[in-house]
């Protein structure tokens, strides 16, 4: 199945934003989040500047991020990745849902789950 042109642009936006963040360029997010960005994760602030300041100081900033999947359509992008904070052997499975409007990220939700012992998940989580 081929992506629409809009879905392809959304994929490029999300993959580039993820890569810039992984490379430590948190400031890149100022180019891709709307000023009134809405965050739905408990404890994380809404608003572009508040969110960027928060994320730059959060444990995710020092974690290793291993992108597994990106699924997109004309309005949303879903990113599935393994986040491994320093000192954590197994890591945390993360699914981010981003809403995109006019080429900018306007809204975010996520689901976060610690990766259990491999014996507990014979088919793997990721």
* Low-pLDDT stretches: none
State the domain count.
Answer: 1
Order of strands across the widest beta sheet? 1-5-4-3-2
The overall average pLDDT, rounded, is 94
Q: Helical segment tally?
A: 3
Which range best describes the helical content: under 10%, 10-25%, 25-40%, 40-55%, 55-70% or over 70%?
Answer: 25-40%
Record field, number of beta strands: 5
Shape verdict: globular
Q: Quote the CATH topology.
A: Nuclear Transport Factor 2, Chain: A
Strand content: 35-45%
Secondary-structure arrangement, i.e. CATH architecture = Roll
Q: How many whole angstroms does the radius of gyration measure?
A: 15 Å
Regarding CATH, which class? Alpha Beta
What class do helices, strands and sheet pairing give?
Answer: alpha+beta
**Biggest sheet details:** 5 strands, mixed
The H/E string reads HHEHEEEE
Protein name: SnoaL-like domain-containing protein
Domain SnoaL-like: 14-108
InterPro entries: NTF2-like_dom_sf, SnoaL-like
Organism: Actinomadura rudentiformis
Structural key phrases:
alpha+beta; 3 helices; 25% helix; globular; SnoaL-like domain-containing protein; SnoaL-like; NTF2-like_dom_sf
Explain what you see.
The protein is an alpha+beta fold. It has a single domain (5-120), classed as Nuclear Transport Factor 2, Chain: A, CATH 3.10.450. Helices cover 25% and strands 37% of the residues. It is built from 3 helices and 5 strands; from the N terminus they run H-H-E-H-E-E-E-E. It has helices at residues 5-22, 29-32, 48-57; strands at residues 33-39, 64-72, 76-84, 92-101, 104-114. The chain has a 5-stranded mixed β-sheet with strand order 1-5-4-3-2. Strand 3 (76-84) and strand 4 (92-101) form a beta hairpin. The radius of gyration is 15 Å and the shape is globular. The mean pLDDT is 94. This is SnoaL-like domain-containing protein. Residues 14-108 form the SnoaL-like domain. It comes from Actinomadura rudentiformis.
